[in-house]
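Fold it.
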Amino acid sequence: MNLTKMSKSFIVVTAFVVLSGPTALVAQKQGSAPAAQGSGVLVAAPSWQKGAYWAKFDHQLLVDFADLARFRDSDLKLGPPTPGENRVVFMGDSITQGWNLQKSFPGKPYINRGISGQTSSQMLLRFRQDVINLKPKVVLILAGTNDLAGNTGPVPFAQVEGNLMSMAQLATVNGIRVVMCSVLPSVRYWWHPEQKDPAPRIIVLNKWIASYSAEKRYVYVNYYSAMADAAGGLPPNLSADGVHPSAAGYAVMAPLAESGIKKALGK
């Protein structure tokens, strides 16, 4: 077989593996589409869209793993902060994406850079474009739950910790103050039901985040303690699906985030 044929065969096999992986198979049975940017609501996809959504998700990993294209134009249009502007970037996954920052923090120069489904590895790859280049005063980093869910494959705790450390270190050397956020509670990842009871692993990761933040003197925002029920889950009064906050959930998170930002700014 010549190299051209081998290359074509590799692409076909790779595409088949990615587009027919466990993510797509699970989602066809019980997946949902992510919330719209800043909507604060998780909207379930019609059944005919579920397989299509996850096929697109898996294809995205192949063509643009970190989804750098998502905010590339918006980042360029935003431009540098004005003199005296306390710009803040919220970096995260669907929990951040679904947060309507203008509603929670009216008039504040807070920028949402959450992308549904992303793991800490993906966030690290886009950290320069979506955080550093925007020159904020503060970044809030909320990551880890999708790592535990296995969205981009199984990863050891050390890798998740390393990604969080790298984002914090990149921010620090670029003069950006760091706010590390706890992973929200959950007892079930409905899109990956094979991940049995993530609650104990979330506790372990949050203990590390709190310890690392204290060691490096980063601000730590503890959403977990304010939102967890007795089982270590996200209760129905704060979430419709046990993972993503409802409007009531974001109402709990907002003052904690604002307090963390003020602390980071020395106010």
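Residues 3-63 form one domain.
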